[in-house]
Design brief:
This protein has 23 helices and 16 strands. With 600 residues, the protein is an alpha/beta fold. An 8-stranded mixed β-sheet has the order 9-10-14-13-12-11-15-16. It has a 4-stranded parallel β-sheet with strand order 2-1-3-4, with helices on both faces. The chain has a two-stranded antiparallel ribbon with strand order 5-6.
């Protein structure tokens, strides 16, 4: 193992010792209590299976026949989740063939950040993760199951499913994705049209035509945002079948992998020699593997929130310092849009996750000795699934990249450090995604232009007030202020100013998203402004420094002068679009660095 990876893992284990031991003790006790069906009274039992087909009822009455829960985030608003509509029938049929049964245990909500970007509904987005976690618990709390299959793909959905399923960590659980949509209009062309629209040089009709050519069918959006970062994580943490992440929906191979997940969750059940409960799969080493994978592929900054909360659900405590230290030794191996020109289909074709896993293991940057749903050892994930005469098989993946512009080996990376870095200074702590930011743009020292809302910044742009070099501060966007919406709508405008030759950066206690692009952005600033964080004391013209190379975020203002100012006051939280229902979550949510959760 690389010594830094070993040291970070050791300190996570030490930091988590008591919490993790308590969690595992509870999960072991749940396992020893026997399958839920054995504890149900006759009336409970009858209610649980009243609607099952007659043949399934007979099998369910056999205590040796496993019953598998299906928890799905299906809806046909999300292109990534629309294919999940057909999965339950496939899973139930595969379970019957394996001598088991499967029941649709519950659905969880799934909102599309692509639809709500810049809209009031985005203020519910982050909190939807914890709602999904609780909904997953509701689905599984009937305690009638021997294993679970979690169907979900997108931004808050997979983290929520993970958190909820870990509350039932004694069950073997496999995550089942839908795969990316086929490639449409290139991301580069889409970005050009967005930039032209921001300048007023493209019509809304032209913009809509471009967007619909890019987002055109079933499957996950093809850029490397949070949704596809989720899929990478599920591979790196051993919760997918190997190679399942990036197979397109509607293909024979995709269906075969879904059926195989149903068979496999039965094979690793509590009565089997290969028992692999989720509580043991999501270990400290698995979490470190997830962080390293995120850094090596230039994944989403959202996971500096989500991974912290996911790990906590398994009794594991990680911090942004862990991300920062691992980033310093993890080379950047992939350039997937917005970090490069190609999309995730291109990434998969060039070698994909099998190549990344092999490279990280060979370099000692990932732990091989972990339990996965496919069996012991992460080496299983350097294999790829294929169909051989109609049968699903796995064979070794690519040892060399088929496209060095997309994927590179550890000894010839795009960058010596990972795609996410930690920033610290007198403005607080923040994270920045550097994988899409050119080196010449990573250090900005300029006057602040301070806004309390993203719409104010856009209005200033339209009024021609954003000339010269500046660092935009968009505050009161943290979890307590308004639920921490993504501010991705700012990307085209800030990117346009960067292209004009201005030195521009963003500093915010909000989120930008997995699609964070070429403009340097200090995100998730903690403490947030509404809690009296330093951003609340900034004024237009204050000189700020964002240095992604040195990891510095600071105001060049005398601390006494800064604190002598009256702090700005946040606008009242919005009403409408359901926002009033989440007031209790805004009041109790934790800080960004601790996962921005109401559950821990």
């Amino acid at each position: 193992m690389h010594p830094v990876v070993a040291d970070v893992t050791a300190r996570i284990e030490a930091r988590s010792r008591d919490r993790r031991a308590d969690y595992l003790e509870r999960m072991d006790a749940a396992h020893q209590a026997a399958p839920g069906r054995a504890k149900l009274s006759c009336a409970n039992f009858a209610h649980a299976f009243a609607a099952a087909p007659a043949a399934d009822k007979l099998r369910i009455m056999d205590p040796a026949a496993p019953n598998i829960a299906i928890v799905s985030a299906y809806n046909d608003m999300l292109s990534a989740h629309q294919p999940l509509e057909t999965y339950p029938a496939l899973i139930k049929a595969a379970a019957r063939e394996a001598g088991a049964t499967a029941q649709f245990a519950g659905g969880v909500p799934a909102m599309c950040d692509g639809v709500t970007q810049g809209q009031p509904g985005m203020e519910l987005s982050l909190f939807s993760r914890d709602v999904i976690a609780m909904a997953t618990a509701v689905a599984l709390t009937h305690d009638a199951f021997d294993g679970a299959l979690c169907l979900g793909v997108c931004d808050k959905i997979v983290p929520g499913l993970v958190i909820g399923a870990l509350a039932f960590g004694h069950l073997p659980t496999i995550f089942v994705p839908a795969g990316p949509m086929t490639s449409g209009l290139s991301n580069a062309e889409k970005a050009k049209v967005r930039g032209r629209f921001a300048e007023g040089k493209a019509t809304r009709e032209e913009l809509l035509a471009s967007e619909m050519a890019a987002y055109h069918g079933p499957g996950t959006c093809t850029f490397y945002g949070t949704a596809n970062s989720n899929q990478m994580l599920m591979e790196m943490m051993g919760l997918h079948l190997p190679g399942a992440a990036f197979i397109n929906p509607g293909t024979v191979l995709r269906g075969a992998l879904t059926e195989a997940a149903a068979r496999r969750v039965i094979e690793i059940g509590g009565r089997k020699q290969d028992y692999a409960p989720m509580a043991r799969v999501v270990s400290e080493k698995a979490v470190v593997n997830g962080i390293v994978g995120l850094l090596a592929t230039g994944g989403s900054t959202n996971h500096t929130l989500h991974l912290v909360a996911m790990a906590m659900a398994a009794g594991i405590e990680i911090t942004w310092d862990d991300f920062g230290d691992l980033s310093a030794v993890t080379p950047l191996l992939a350039r997937v849009y917005p970090n490069g020109s190609g999309d995730v289909n291109h990434f998969h074709a060039a070698g994909g996750m099998a190549f990344v896993v092999r490279q990280l293991l060979d370099a000692g940057l990932a732990h091989e000795d972990v339990l996965t749903v496919a069996g012991p050892g992460l080496r299983r994930y350097q294999r790829e699934p294929f169909l051989d005469m109609g049968d699903l098989v796995w064979r070794e993946g690519r040892a060399q990249s088929l496209d060095p512009a997309m994927l590179r080996p550890v000894d010839d990376p795009f960058d010596a450090e990972g795609g996410i870095r930690l920033l610290t200074g007198n403005l607080g702590r923040a994270v920045i995604k550097t994988s899409a930011v050119r080196p010449e743009h990573r250090v900005v020292e300029a006057p602040a232009k301070v806004f309390d809302d993203q719409d104010d910044l856009l209005a200033a742009f339209r009024a021609g007030e954003l000339g010269g070099d500046f660092i935009a501060v968009v505050r009161f966007q943290g979890p307590k202020a308004n639920g921490m919406p993504e501010l991705h709508n700012l990307s085209p405008t800030l990117g346009l100013l960067l292209d004009r030759g201005q030195k521009v950066a963003l500093v915010t206690d909000g989120r930008m998203s997995g699609a964070s692009g070429k403009t340097p952005a200090a995100l998730h600033v903690t403490p947030e402004a509404i809690e009296g964080g330093p951003l609340a004391y900034l004024r237009d013209g204050d000189i700020l420094r964002l240095d992604a190379e040195a990891g510095v975020l600071e105001a060049k203002v005398d601390p006494a002068v800064l604190r002598a100012r009256q702090p700005a006051t946040a606008r009242p939280a919005g009403f409408g679009f359901g926002r009033e229902l989440f007031g209790h979550m805004r009041r109790t949510v934790g800080a960004a660095e601790t996962g921005a959760s109401v559950l821990f």
